[in-house]
C-alpha cells in the first residue's frame, strides 16, 4: 500500500509540469485535492526549491531543480527562470514593462512580464497571452532568428490560418525581406498599422549556448513618449541586446547545474 501523502505531492508536481503556470484553483480542479492540502504541498515544494510562486506570473511553476528528479523539465521554462531577474532589473531602471515570450505552435506566448513592476505599462496583463508571430515584435524577433527548418514549419501552419495577421505567411517574398531586415538590425518591432497603435514593442531574440533561438525579450512603451520609433530603438535596443547576452550566459550556467544534479 502506497504512502498517500507522497502520492499527492507527486500528483501535484505532475500537474505543475503540464502547465507553464498553475493556480491553486487549477490544481484543485485537476487533482481534486482540497485547497488547504494544496497550499501545504506547494509551500513545502517552495521551501525545498522545486516550485516558484511569482505574483507577476499569477501562479506557481516548477524550477530547474525539478530536473534533478526526472527528465520532465524542459529548457523553455529554464529560459524564463534565467531571464526573470534581468527583466525585473530592466523595468526598475527604465520603467517600461519587459516580456519574455516563447514559441507555441501557431503563436508566440508571453510567459513572463514585469507589468506589475511598471507604473507606466500600456497593458494590465499579458502573461499567457498568445500573440500572432508575424505581426508582433516578440513573434518576429523569434521567427527571424529561427532555423530555416523551423521557419518553414511555422509558415506551413500559418498558411492554413484565416487570421488576417497570418496573411504574411502566404507572401514568401515579402516575408523574406522582413526577416532579412530584422536579422540585419538585430531586433524587431510591431508594425505601425497593428493594434494597439498607441504603443509599440521592441524585441530581440534570446539564444541558448548553441546559438539557437529559444525565446524573445521585449520592451513595450507608449509611442507618444518618443518623437519616433528610431529614437526609442536607439535608446533601448542596446539595452535589450545586452540583457539577452547576459541571460544566455545564465541559461548556460543553469543548464550545466541541472545536468550535474540530474
Sheet having the most strands = 6 strands, antiparallel
The largest sheet has its strands arranged as: 5-4-3-8-7-6
Number of helices: 8
Q: Which residues form runs of ≥5 with pLDDT under 50? A: 70-75
* Radius of gyration over C-alpha positions, nearest whole angstrom: 19 Å
Q: Which topology of the largest domain does CATH recognise?
A: Beta-Lactamase
Based on DSSP secondary structure assignment, what is the total number of beta strands?
A: 8
CATH class of the largest domain: Alpha Beta
Task: Return the average pLDDT rounded to an integer.
Answer: 88
**Number of structurally distinct domains:** 2
Amount of beta strand: 15-25%
SSE ordering: HHHEEHEEEHHHEEEH
- Based on the structure, what is the oligomeric state of the protein chains? single chain
Distance between the termini: 28 Å
Keyphrases for this structure?
alpha+beta; single chain; 6-stranded antiparallel sheet; 262 residues; 47% helix; globular; 2 domains; 8 strands; Arc Repressor Mutant, subunit A; Beta-Lactamase; two-stranded antiparallel sheet
How would you characterize this protein structure?
With 262 residues, the protein is of the alpha+beta class. It folds into two domains: 59 residues, Orthogonal Bundle (Arc Repressor Mutant, subunit A); 187 residues, GAF domain (Beta-Lactamase). The protein is built from eight helices and eight strands; from the N terminus they run αααββαβββαααβββα. The strands form two sheets. Strands 5-4-3-8-7-6 form a six-stranded antiparallel sheet, with helices on both faces. Strands 1-2 form a two-stranded antiparallel sheet. Strand 1 and strand 2 form a beta hairpin. About 2% of the residues have low confidence.
Amino acid at each position: 500500500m502506497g504512502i498517500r501523502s507522497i502520492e499527492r505531492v507527486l500528483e501535484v508536481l505532475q500537474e505543475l509540469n503540464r502547465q507553464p503556470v498553475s493556480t491553486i484553483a487549477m490544481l484543485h480542479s485537476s487533482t481534486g485535492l482540497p485547497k488547504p492540502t494544496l497550499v501545504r504541498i506547494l509551500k513545502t515544494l517552495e521551501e525545498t526549491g522545486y516550485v516558484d510562486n511569482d505574483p507577476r506570473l499569477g501562479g506557481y511553476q516548477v524550477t530547474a531543480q525539478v530536473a534533478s528528479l526526472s527528465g520532465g523539465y524542459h529548457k523553455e521554462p529554464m529560459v524564463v527562470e534565467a531571464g526573470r531577474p534581468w527583466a525585473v532589473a530592466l523595468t526598475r531602471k527604465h520603467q517600461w514593462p519587459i516580456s519574455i515570450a516563447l514559441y507555441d505552435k501557431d503563436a508566440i506566448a508571453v510567459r513572463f512580464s514585469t507589468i506589475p513592476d511598471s507604473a507606466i505599462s500600456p497593458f494590465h496583463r499579458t502573461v499567457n497571452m498568445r500573440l500572432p508571430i508575424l505581426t508582433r515584435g516578440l513573434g518576429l524577433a523569434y521567427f527571424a532568428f529561427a532555423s530555416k527548418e523551423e521557419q518553414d514549419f511555422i509558415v506551413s501552419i500559418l498558411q492554413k490560418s484565416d487570421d488576417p495577421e497570418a496573411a504574411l505567411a502566404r507572401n514568401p517574398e515579402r516575408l523574406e525581406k522582413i526577416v532579412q531586415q530584422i536579422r540585419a538590425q538585430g531586433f524587431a518591432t510591431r508594425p505601425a498599422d497593428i493594434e494597439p497603435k498607441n504603443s509599440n514593442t521592441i524585441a530581440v531574440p534570446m539564444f541558448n549556448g548553441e546559438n539557437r533561438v529559444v525565446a524573445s525579450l521585449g520592451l513595450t512603451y507608449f509611442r507618444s513618449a518618443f518623437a519616433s520609433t528610431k529614437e526609442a530603438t536607439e535608446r533601448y535596443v542596446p539595452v535589450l541586446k545586452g540583457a539577452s547576452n547576459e541571460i544566455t550566459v545564465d541559461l548556460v550556467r543553469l543548464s550545466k547545474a541541472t545536468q550535474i544534479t540530474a
